[in-house]
Design a protein that fits this description.
Helix content is 13%, strand content 38%. The protein is mostly beta strands and 661 residues long. Helix 1 runs antiparallel to helix 2 (37-45). The structure holds (dicuprio-$l^{3}-sulfanyl)-sulfanyl-copper and dinuclear copper ion. Residues 577, 607, 642, 644-646, 650, 653 line the site of dinuclear copper ion.
Length: 661
Amino acid sequence: MKKLISVGILLLIGVLFIVACGGAPGTGGTPAAGLTVDAAAVVQARGLSSDDIYAAVKTYTPSGKTDPYIMIASGGQSGQVLVIGIPSMRILKVIGVFTPEPWQGYGFGGSGDEILAGGKVNGKDVLWGDTHHPGLSETNGVYDGQFAFINDKANARVAVIDLRDFSTKQILKNPNAINDHGGAFVTPNTEYVIEGPQYAAPIGYEYAALDQYKDKYRGLITFWAFDRMKGRFDQSKSFQIELPPYWQDLCDAGKKVSEGWVFCNSFNTELAIGGNNPSFEAGTTKNDTDYLHIINYKKAEEIVRAGKAKQLNGMMMIDLKTAAAEGILFFSPEPKSPHGSDVTPGGEYIVVGGKLDPHVTVYSFEKIQNAIQAGGLKTDEYGVPVIPLDKAMEAQIELGLGPLHTVFDDKGYAYTSLFLDSAVARWSLGGPYEKKHPEPGWKLVQKLPVQYNIGHITAVEGDTAEPGGQFVVALNKWSIDRFANIGPLMPQNFQLVDISKTGDQMKVLYDMPIGMAEPHYAEIIKADRLKPWQVYPQVGWNAETMSVDPKATLKEADAKVVRNGNQVEIFMTVIRSHYMPEKVEIKKGDHVIWHLTSLERTPDATHGFALSGYNINLSIEPGKTETIEFDATLPGTFTYYCTEFCSALHLEMLGYFLVQP
Ligand code: RUQ
Ligand code: CUA
């Protein structure tokens, strides 16, 4: 074996030599012009295999070249969102979302404070989040590169990120749910962002003893209406549907043929209430099946319009009885401790994994519709019609241990994460996908080991109506021995997988440690769909309102300090390498409103603004206006200075803030 590999390497080195020597000197433009005798020596010295070299050339991104794909990943318990280039796996940005973020000045005096305030829980700041599932905005089931959404599982909150400046614009607290999980998932034209629940609780933060679980506890799914023009959720057009107290888990919106429907897996149809007698672990896994929730949200919309929903804490809500009676909610059994619910690109099938089942179960949307049309369905104990599994199922494919989530490619393959097996399963789709790949349909094609215990999986546009292929990323929960030992809290391991070839040719290309939390899901978009700004469109741009701020100072000559009683309003300009004015002198107890406008039009000419002693820190990108407001309660001599190394005279970019006692 060893000999074979070294023969392989020698052959490869031989090829490198031939390519290197074949290129005329100075022909820097040919793809292989960089391969030299030196490179071959490195290959040998580092003991790289031919697979290693393949992985290197597949992922290496030369300086000055940018990535063709961008991954928007959950930042897990950090409450943030990560932006990562693919295939280089370089982190491009950590977007502050539920947690203050100093570099962006998010939550340290500027407009970020107001955005974070949207996430208050019962009037109290909650300055972290457990982000799970980012969702990119879609048009006709395809990413359009305009917005990203993310949920906070811990507190049932959702956030909007605008992809013109990659910053958070809105956080909303779900007024009736305590936690969520199955969010944020978008409908094919981003009419709604779906926030599914997780652990049942009495709706609207009520108290109820656990022995009243069956009657008083409920699940809840929320459809946040999204106003694309405003780039904000519109709570007045949003609605919720009350569900039985099964633990609804992951959802996916139907697309194309199944547009207008949403599918969520669930667990704990046992109605276990824990308390170690039995434990939740044992209690929620007793049944062989739980229920796939099949929800007709177009019908739900009509019911809300017809006035058959009630208001609760500022949200329209359809109660469980109405949902069951009006044909909004159906169930179908799903085996064993189900997890994940993923709709195929054409919308024909729904794939559900089973944490304790070696199969994925594929449901046919057409069969589901036929069963609903045929009627005569028995109901569960909450009156919800149940479609028997054999009337809804298209196929069951044995993949291995712990199948969780599934994404798709452009060749008619599906990719499922196998948590217990620590593997990515590639399998072929049947039906209309049959002719796209060389294998007969509904069949396991390859199981690729990953390191280790993969949770989610994502592929290039792999959950859209038009998957891109090329790459999969395995979001592994455990890394164990993959990185240098840095103590007992180990990084997560994102592994880039090459899926460019058909058959059993998947390969792990690259390991990327994520050393700041446990991301859950991620989505990968083609970079050319994004049209972000390099500088804000006009000087004086307020990034919160996304318009020119009426309080902006558009030229240095207009910079001034205006006193009105004990209110002091400062109109300040910011440009390399000075603030105007450079001195602000006020009295203790004055109320300060301070507007800062960057006059810069040069890409990346960002300035900071740190005000010592007052916990204020801003990032002022080219053209941006920020406003801070505070009471000058602390007398003394303070400095404000620029925190971004913006020029040779960056250290000289400061001013004095004098507060007379
Ligand atoms: S699910 S633990 Cu995305 Cu597999 Cu949250
Ligand atoms: Cu501006 Cu440093």
